[in-house]
Amino acid sequence: ETGVTQTPRHLVMGMTNKKSLKCEQHLGHNAMYWYKQSAKKPLELMFVYSLEERVENNSVPSRFSPECPNSSHLFLHLHTLQPEDSALYLCASSQAWQGMYEQYFGPGTRLTVT
Amino acid sequence: AQSVTQLDSQVPVFEEAPVELRCNYSSSVSVYLFWYVQYPNQGLQLLLKYLSGSTLVKGINGFEAEFNKSQTSFHLRKPSVHISDTAEYFCAVTRSGQTGANNLFFGTGTRLTVIP
Predict the structure, then answer these.
(1) Residues of B (48-77) whose Cβ lies below 8 Å from A
(2) Is B35 on the interface with A (CB under 8 A)?
(3) Is A94 within 8 Å of B44 when comparing Cβ atoms?
(4) With contacts defined as CB-CB under 8 Å, which chain A residues touch B36?
(5) What pLDDT is recorded for position A109?
(6) Is the CB of residue A42 less than 8 Å away from at least one CB of chain B?
(7) Which of A56-65, B19-28, B96-105 is predicted least confidently?
(8) Nearest CB neighbour to B32, from listed A42, A97, A101
(9) Per-residue pLDDT tens for A76-105?
(10) Does B43 contact A56 at a Cβ distance shorter than 8 Å?
């Protein structure tokens, strides 16, 4: 595997379910991010991890719970979601040292909440 | 904080014609600028970036962009588009000189549709 991978690619869940999204980066980066992409809205930054520590939480509801067990893996745990949480969830990674500031994105998980 | 405005939500253009996608940013500090492309059912892919140096930057797939500090713009151009360029294009900005994780602020995107 190369780059940033995300599983599953598609997920349909009911409002009472609990599920998790997984992201893995194979680039040796030290920062990871979760974004939410909804139709006709800018990308919304949800969480930022640097060296496995959460450095930003952009007022995300507690029904979204991130976890970063090591620098290569990032999870987003989901429970009691709402229909408006249906969106494409994108994971990204970066290496902010050494002059590299761009983020590398995974293909996303298309989440539908019914 | 930084912000980005992409003035055109949709840009239709005929195949082999030139195209310009507009991006303006707002920031009180020095910035780095990026253009990303998103094809259907995929994540975002970096097209090009401006960190410093020459204001004209060249990227993948024949795209280029020019950083204009006085006009706070970073417009994306391609002299001749192909059908395969049909996609969503995002401009992004971040504060320069950060260490650790850096937040990218994205525009709302421009849908480029290339017409045969």
Answers:
(1) 49, 51
(2) no
(3) no
(4) 105
(5) 97
(6) yes
(7) B96-105
(8) A101
(9) 999 999 999 999 999 999 986 656 678 999
(10) no
B90 touches chain A (CB under 8 A): yes
Query: Which of B34-48 are b and which e, b meaning 16 or more Cβ less than 10 Å from the residue's Cβ?
Result: bbbbbeeeebbbbbb
B69-104: b or e for each residue (b if 16 or more CB lie within 10 Å)? Answer: eeebbbbbebeebeeebbbbbbbbbbbeeeeebbbb
Distance from CA of B9 to the nearest CA of A (A): 9
Q: Are B80 and B63 in contact (CB under 8 A)?
A: no
Residue A65 tokens read as 């719970």
3-state SS, one letter per residue, for chain B: CCEEECCCCEEEEECCCCEEECCEEECCCCEEEEEEEECCCCCEEEEEEECCCCCEEECHHHCEEEEECCCCEEEEEECCCCHHHCEEEEEEEEECCCCCCCCCEECCCEEEEEEC
CB contact under 8 A, A103 and B104: yes
What per-residue confidence (pLDDT) applies to A99?
Answer: 60
Q: Say how far apart CA B116 and CA A83 lie, in whole Å.
A: 38
CA angle A106, B104, B67 (to 5 degrees): 115
